[in-house]
Amino acid sequence: MSSPSRAYGELAPALPLALVFVGAFVLPLIALVAISFYRTPEFLDLSPVQYLRFLSDPFSLRVLADTVMLGLEVALCALVLAYPLALVYVASGAVVRMILTFLILLPLLTSTVVRTFAWIVILGRDGIVNATMLSLGLWDSPARLLYSWGGLVLALTQIQLPLMALPLINSLLRLDGNLAKAAEGLGAGRFRVFFTVILPLTLPGAIAGGLLVFAAAATAFITQTLVGGGRIILMPSYIYQQSMGVQDWPFAAALSLIFTVAVVGIVAAIGALSRLMTRGQHAT
Amino acid sequence: MASSATMMQTTAAAPEARGCALALEGIGHSFGGTIALDAIDLAVAPGELIALLGPSGCGKTTLLQIIAGFVQPSRGSVAFDQQRVDRTPANRRRIGMVFQNYALFPHLTVAENVAYGLRARKAPGAMVRSRVAEMLARVQMTTFGNRFPRQLSGGQQQRVALARALAIDPVLVLLDEPFSALDKNLRLDMQIEIKNLLKSCGVTSIMVTHDQEEALSMADRIVVLNKGRIEQIDTPDALYDAPASLFVNGFIGHANFLAGRTAGARGLVHLAAGAALVLREATQRTAETDVTVSIRPENLTLFERERPGAIPATVRVAMPLGAVSVIECVLASGETVKVSQSRAAWSGQPGAPAWLGITDTTKIHVFDTPRGSPSII
After folding, report:
1. Domains of chain A: residue spans and CATH
2. Is the pLDDT at B374 greater than 70, yes or no?
3. pTM for this prediction
4. What residue numbers bound the domain in which B172 lies?
5. SS3 of residue A35 by DSSP
6. Which chain A positions have a beta carbon within 8 Å of B70's beta carbon?
7. Interface ipTM
8. For the sheet containing B83-84, what is the strand order?
9. Which chain B residue's Cα is nearest to A184?
């Protein structure tokens, strides 16, 4: 229909962003790929040895698996916490909704560093939780909450919760309220209504939120490092350690690319699966 | 109390079980400070088809939600077969509800939609399958069992919604504006089909509508609601022939309202339009009372020549509507009047002078003119 020159004209406003994208993302990515194929940290000899090194090293594979696991666990926790929150939001009046919107958005308006330090204050050896439990006599000695896997999942869940809650609320708001009433009228109890009507019909929102939380939690370098501490090694800190610490840039580059492919691959796979599962309900 | 699952199984053996009697007593409901419903009393016999009719905002949908159990009334009681169900949640009331937009589950097939209520009651698999097949056959949708709702036309979706509601063998079927989403041409066919289906099931049914034709064609009795109160409960014929209020008269069928004033005890009424009528219904009123006289369009005849007792008028527009013509006239008082008569009986042109004759003065209704409305006499 439109001539090629006209089509280019319409794309012109996107040019500045495209230049930034190429300069700040595509070129470094190409550089990263190139670096990852050097054999030694001194950038000598091209070879895929860094990838073979990763694949044959149980420690490295374990770090990748732990990182993916962390992302999945945080996404699941966020999902379980966000559904009740979203249901309360949708059932509420205008004033309560406004307050909830503010509370949900508040973490997004705060710096990650600030939020993470708040968790250090809460979970630390002399933190709020330990101090409370000790003074109530419920615990004999301070528990190790900070620098633990559970503490890390908890902190990341809280920090990433908005990414889950917002798509979910959006999904629930678009759901026809009569569907739940129809199910209830047909004799379904609350749990049946939720699991047979509300959950399947809001699954696309839940998956969208889950993928955002997964990607954000798996790559959350600051929170992972500060709340997880030195004992928990995950891909972002592993890459940092190999590049800035050991100065083994080729291996760090290979780690970065493997991590990127893993995260993007899981996101794409889950996205494809959810589209397949919910195919029946969308107009063709 | 027996659980709904066991009740389902015991009654499933007799699918033609009759519907329940419904009794509403003193139902009132307020949203915030505004009163949505007030002093609603209604007794419905088993198997009866009742229409709740009224303009939007009259409270008819709220009343349906109260009967269904989705809304707790502020006052009054709801009883199914003399058993109060006020505290029974919607999922224990054994009601079949058909929603305005049908509310079919978009992620389930037609058969799964119909099976939903049976599965929710934990009916055994074999029974679910046979009941679904039976219901789909009843609504002539057998070949559509594996389709998704979005693949169906509006009429087909409505059939499925009805099959889903009837599958649980409800004691009461509630229909919320069931025909408003359908094409006008399809509407009458679906009304006949659904009326037959509900009657053959013998289930008690309550439908909500703002469309008087729908209510007149479907219902055994019509409850006319206005501003949260019942104006009249009667059969369609009685509502039309003997409306209890000016509102009902205007809402059911077409009516011409003419201002008048009584003169003497024998029922003499002087119309603002310049004629005097002797009306039976005016005899109860004292002289010099402002009244509104209601004459149906089909009770008027237009003449091209003056005759005794006829009201002078000017034809404004004539609309041929197939079997009849509707002719709008302006009277000397400025009031407009619609006349409905056979097309052959009138050949006059717009602008022509004409005289309005009344076919049957006993069918004219007289109401007190509401206070505060402007008198044109």
Report:
1. 57-283 (1.10.3720.10)
2. no
3. 0.79
4. 17-247
5. helix
6. 181, 184-185
7. 0.78
8. B34-44, B22-31, B75-80, B83-84
9. B91
